[in-house]
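Try this one yourself first.
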């Protein structure tokens, strides 16, 4: 039997998730890919509205505990984990005015969130898993998708693990060799896929299907209006644009933008 999922990429205060989630009974799972706060200035969403939207998402999860999955992104971890916050004195679009309030919301509901999720043999994370980061930074050489997901979720349980999650490559302005599953850029994933053809090593993640968001595909048109993009597909990977909900056919590994 074909199982369909509703996938909600990066929120950043947007409410595009509300309408498709009204049809929740049509889906076996509803998976949010993280980044619930820190709205983009060009979208004119206030920090207050983003917080209220986040409260509604938490409520939605509590009302649909088994169906809804809430993943965490790079914008969530500075609020959720004090150690992660301390790795830098600056976080992109971070709400310093509301930091304490948002942190309390995460900490009081930490059992609702996770970094990685596996469903129907598909790995879901915020930014995608670069096999080079997985092997070199995390030290995970597993080929079992469930063990990989477990290793990723365990990173949030220690300061050492959180530092590995803070790996940011040059594509995102960092100085690490590879980006983590919170920070990997679309270019990093593409380079990771290409690397399999230049090495004799069979990296475990290469044979695993992945879905992730993180990289905004929006651009300005000639009238200076924002035009959002489409999903980017690689072999075994689909990077969803961050302003639309998607329906996933798990059997065919096909997505439809809603």
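Now uncover the answer:
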């Amino acid at each position: 039997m074909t199982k369909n999922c509703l996938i909600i990429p990066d929120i950043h205060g947007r409410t595009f998730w509300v309408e498709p989630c009204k049809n929740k009974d049509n889906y076996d799972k509803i998976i949010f890919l993280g980044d619930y706060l820190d709205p983009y200035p060009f979208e004119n969403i206030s920090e207050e509205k983003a917080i209220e939207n986040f409260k509604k998402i938490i409520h939605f999860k509590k009302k649909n505990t088994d169906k809804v999955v809430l993943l965490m992104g790079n914008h969530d971890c500075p609020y959720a984990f004090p150690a992660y916050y301390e790795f830098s004195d600056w976080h992109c679009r971070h709400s310093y005015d509301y930091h304490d309030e948002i942190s309390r919301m995460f900490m009081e509901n930490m059992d609702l969130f996770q970094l990685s999720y596996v469903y129907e043999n598909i790995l879901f994370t915020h930014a995608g898993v670069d096999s080079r980061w997985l092997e070199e930074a995390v030290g995970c050489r597993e080929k079992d998708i469930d063990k990989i997901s477990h290793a990723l979720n365990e990173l949030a349980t220690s300061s050492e693990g959180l530092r590995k999650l803070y790996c940011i490559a040059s594509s995102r302005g960092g100085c690490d060799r590879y980006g983590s599953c919170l920070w990997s850029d679309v270019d990093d994933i593409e380079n990771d896929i290409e690397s399999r053809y230049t090495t004799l090593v069979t990296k475990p993640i290469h044979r695993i299907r992945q879905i992730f968001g993180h990289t905004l595909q929006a651009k300005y048109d000639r009238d200076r209006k924002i035009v959002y993009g489409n999903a980017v597909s690689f072999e075994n990977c689909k990077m969803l644009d961050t302003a639309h909900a998607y329906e996933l056919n798990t059997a065919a590994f096909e997505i439809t933008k809603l």
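Discussion: The chain has one domain: 4-128+199-257. Residues 24 and 30 are 7 Å apart (CA to CA).
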